[in-house]
Every structure is written in structure tokens, then in C-alpha cells.
Amino acid sequence: MALILGLESSCDETAAALVESDGTIRAHKLARQEEAHRPYGGVVPEIAARAHVEMLGPLVEAALEEAGVTLDQVDAIAATAGPGLIGGVMVGLVTGKALALAANKPLVAVNHLEGHALSPRLGDQSLEFPYLLLLVSGGHCQLLLVEGVSRYRRLATTIDDAAGEAFDKTAKLLGLGFPGGPAVEQAAMRGNPRAVPLPRPLVGSGEPHFSFAGLKSAVARAVNDYSAEDLAASFQQAVVDCLVDRTRRALTSVTVQPSALVVAGGVAANKAVRGALETLAAEHALRFVAPPLWLCTDNAAMIAWAGAERFAQGLTDPLDTPARARWPLDPDAEKVRGAGVKA
Ligand code: KG4
Ligand code: ZN
After folding, report:
1. Separation of 168 CA from ligand 1 center, angstroms?
2. Superfamily of domain 3-116+295-312
3. What pTM was estimated for this model as a whole?
4. Is the CB of 164 under 6 A from ligand 1?
5. Lower Cβ count inside 10 Å, N or C end of the chain?
6. Nearest-angstrom CA–CA distance, 80 and 283
7. pLDDT tens digit string along 299-343?
């Protein structure tokens, strides 16, 4: 059994966790920075990086204390090494390197996306490779065939905005505040999902990808004609329809039989999204797996877990490992139009 310390600092959550290789979560600590970024209506990279510097050390200490262990009892240190806001990534990675050096422990440099991609296996130990993963977060919207640790085949990605980004921009347009996804979900509960006619970009298209920019523009045009609740509900329904249609296309075109349909990333915390995907999986007689809500949004338990999965395979990294703003899970995937801006 190995005990892994995980560090996360790639966006606006600072987190430290201790996870064992059998999936036992010994401790997880997290500090949000919402208040610091709220006046700006979005994450300000420099404010985020400074907050990570202040928070990460105390969170590591608190996690060790909660688990009742010292750094000497940890087997490896896993830190997010990208992709993300580079200042924040550097804080977490350098902290991980310093701890590894001081305690003479191996470093595991974790791709944040691999943290999300493997998080369903932390929540559900019986989930086996390969599985079809819809990875929906603030920066990414991808369908991936997860063949194993470090083995990903990207089947689709967004040609413009990510799904979470669309939620955040819509929240801003509707004056619902920051962070946007949960605010839109709340407002949508009080609205009519059929009230506002909104487009479903690329639905029914022969190409496999996602697009959300046109949807956001349509919300902007309708903003004076409908209530925020009806707009939120109609927008959320449009996103759900796009995610389901694209995932259905992937399910019917993928050449190997996946063990399950899996959803991960911040948008996977949305109940309408989870419900619609669960129905889709049932239609295809497939198991549906979604991590518990707290494990969907950024956290360090998923980084420690990805670290544990990599460590078990002997995948450790040298102390000169770089921090990476962009780091695709499938480096062989072909570039799609408009995708130059996303990792
Ligand atoms: O995975 P995550 O915490 O950070 C990234 O790696 O991007 O995802 C954050 C994204 C944000 O865009 C946020 O608005 C969205 O996930 N999100 C949600 C919900 N909770 C978080 N979107 C829709 N409904 C939610 N309940
Ligand atoms: Zn994330």
C-alpha cells in the first residue's frame, strides 16, 4: 500500500490531500478564492498565484495533521504540473519538488486533466478500462477513450468555448455572478427550459466535435426579452442537448466496447447534465459512472489518486520537470479549427 500526497493549484482552488493506493482518502483540504476574484467577475491569474503561495503550505500541514502522519510516512508527492494558469501551476509544482527534495521522496508530475479523467476510479474502484469519458470543465470539453493510465484517445473536443466557460459567460450575461456554473444551475431550477428558442450548435453534425460560442451569443441577444430564470433553464437544456448528442455520436462510432460511460470535471457537478447522461447510458445498456459532486470540481484528492495510479506503474518524474500551461492528454490528436487557444 502506498500513501500519496497530492497538490492542486492550477486555477482558483488551492488544495492538498492524502490518498492511499486502495482509494482510501486519509485527508483532503481545500481553500477557494471566490471572494478574491468576485469583484472582477472571473479568475485573475496573478491574484490566484499569490493566494496559492499563501495557502498551500498551511493546507499541506493541515492534511498531514488530519491523516495523523508525517511527511516521512508519505511514499510519493504528486503535484499538478499543468495545464492551467501558469503562475498557479508553478506554485504547486515547485512546492511539490521542494517537499520531495526535503523528504527524499519521488515526485509524480500530474496532468490536471488526468486527475479529472481518473477521478471516477477513486470514487468507484470497480470501474475498469477502457471507458468513454466526457470531460467537461472550465477549460475543456472533450470525449476521450480512456484506455489506461497515461493512455488516452481523444474522440472529440470543442472548436471554440468549453462547456464550463459557456456556463460562466452566461452567468455573467444574466448577472448571476461568479462562479457561474452553480449560479446558472440554481436559477434554472426556477425557469422553463422551453421558454427561449436557443440553437444547439453542431447537434446532428457528421463531425464529432462540440461548439458553444453561438449558444452564448444567442443568450446575449435574448437577454432583454426573457427572465434570467427562463434564460438559465433554456441555456442549460441546450448545453445538455449538445453534450448528449455528441456523446451519443461517440458511443455509436467508437470501435472498442467501453466498460462504462463516465463524466468528470466541474460541469459534471450539474444535476441536469448527470441525469441526461445517465439516461443515455441506459439507452445503450452501459454502466454510468459519475464521481461524487465534490470530486467533480477541482480538488487535490484526484491529483493524489492520479499520482497513486502513476506511482503504481513506476511513473515518477525528475525534479527538473517543467510546468506546462498547455498539456493535451492525447498528443497525437489532430488539431481542430479554433482549437489553438485550448490545451
Ligand atoms: O473542473 P473545474 O473545477 O476546473 C477546471 O479544471 O476548469 O471546472 C470548473 C467549471 C466552471 O466553468 C464552473 O462554472 C463549472 O465547472 N461548474 C458547473 C457546475 N459546477 C461547476 N457548471 C454547471 N453546473 C454546475 N453545478
Ligand atoms: Zn479542473
Report:
1. 8
2. ATPase, nucleotide binding domain (3.30.420.40)
3. 0.96
4. yes
5. N
6. 36
7. 999 999 999 999 999 999 999 999 999 999 999 998 886 654 433
Tell whether omega for the bond before 179 is within 30 degrees of 0, i.e. cis.
yes
The CA radius of gyration of the chain, in Å to the nearest whole number, is: 20
Quote the DSSP letter at residue 42: S
Assess whether the C-beta atom of 343 lies below 6 angstroms from ligand 1. Answer: no
Numbered ranges of CATH 3.30.420.40 in the chain: 3-116+295-312, 129-293
Amino acid letter, 226: Y
Describe the crossing of helices 180-188 and 271-283 by its angle, rounded to 10 degrees. Answer: 80
Q: Determine whether the shortest distance from the Cβ of 168 to ligand 1 is under 6 A.
A: yes
Q: Does domain 129-293 have CATH number 3.30.420.40?
A: yes
Ligand 1, atom 21, residue with closest C-alpha: 266
Cβ of 267 below 6 Å from ligand 1: yes
Q: In which residue are the cell numbers 450575461 written?
A: 173
